[in-house]
Here is the input.
Amino acid sequence: MLDDPTLGLNDPALLPGAGDFPGQGRLAVRDPASGDLVARVAISDGVGAGAAVDAAQAAFPGWSAMLPQDRAAILHRWHGLILAAKDDLARIMVAEQGKPISEAQGEIDYAASFVRFYAEEALRPNIESVTSHLPHAEMELWREPVGVAALITPWNFPSAMITRKAAAALAAGCAVVIHPSAETPLSALALAELARRAGFPAGVVNTVIGDAATIAGAWCADARVRALSFTGSTQVGRLLYRQSADTVKRLVMELGGHAPFIVFQGADLDRAVTEAVKAKFATSGQDCLGANRFYIHRPIYDDFCARFAAAVDKLTLGPGMSDPDIGPLIHARQIAKQQAHIDDAIAKGARLLTGGDVDAAQGPLFFRPTVLADVPDTAAIMAEETFGPVAAISAFDSEDEVIARANASEYGLIAYVHSLDPRRIYRLTRALQYGMVAVNRTKVTGAPIPFGGMKQSGLGREGARQGLEAFTEIKYVCRDWG
Ligand code: NAD
Here is the structure.
């Protein structure tokens, strides 16, 4: 148990009480840095998941009928409360997720930005007219909220993945049922408490903790749940896609990624190295946007490898509250995956430039930032999501070759390109089969952009105006005045 079970919060009431829905037992939340027990959280079962839908279904008519400016006012209050509680929310996140405190604070800003964006978006007029193709007829399109929306989120961004979905759904007029990952329920419950204080009517925002398969299964089968927005692995996304077929739900799927990071001769190499470190090691490597494969033009290959490995050597590793560059990984499965990808790559001819194992002095979940060079395309790390602090580098000779290798993936979330040649950049950005292409920088996301992937990285987009689409239906009305 931690010395201070209140985590040093200014507002300990942000930590959970007894739980809102009928439950069975408690879930232990542990600090990945120390293994200490942080809290025990009441959990729900399938009955609790159904009760949350009952509450949301009952609240939906009133919420969706509210004037948009009244819904927006509540969203603005939620935004203000999240920012006012930023330090507490960041501490909670570090305690259960392990990320460095400055990254956790950055995530709270990012999470809040979606709430403000969609509070404003709720006010935009949404009636369009259609040029009639029928005599005497007047045509209109209305966007209406779909109804109850289920939101299922992962542990790597415990707050932002909730607000990116919930703010859009709530602005559209939907009531929501939220299931956060078992690793990070505390951030979700703190956001729910702030939503309650912001004044969302009872039943509009419901958070259900418990066994993911049971809760998600109940919601997929429930015809009253009209939309499902999921962020997580492609493997679980496929399962939920199948389970939603019988009730033909609207789906948003933000799934896995396997980002290529491509550097051409003539790029600003200092900048490419700095951005490469960010693209690989932010969120301790546990990021769907994390660069998994580094393709470096052969004339600059040795120089890039040496500079990148030197920069990675300087990264610090430690518990999140000490604000290192890299914190612990979330659980032992993640550690095993790093080691398996490294061992496999080395067995197939890769060279280890730095790192390569657990830093036992820090604890069993601290993996040293690792760089592998000369990694062949046959290595597992060149195809599977590593989701940790291991970088794999390979040389390429031509533009056509690197485009083909970058696109040879079931994933299509984001690709990074470093070049100063505008024609080359044009050709690359056209040819890469990715939902997002970042040129000469790493951080490109935010509330105003439509985030999402091609191929098996997902369906639909989150953020921007497009983020509202899954939570609305278009109703076409035709009036005959003849
Ligand atoms: P995960 O798929 O294991 O879990 C995500 C969510 O699904 C959690 O809430 C979990 O409880 C639930 N879940 C797990 N098993 C389930 C089951 N059998 N049935 C129903 N629900 C189930 O993913 P994770 O390990 O929490 O997160 C990492 C993954 O998320 C990576 O693949 C990463 O790329 C992806 N991710 C994608 C984005 C994006 O925006 N595209 C953002 C963050 C993370």
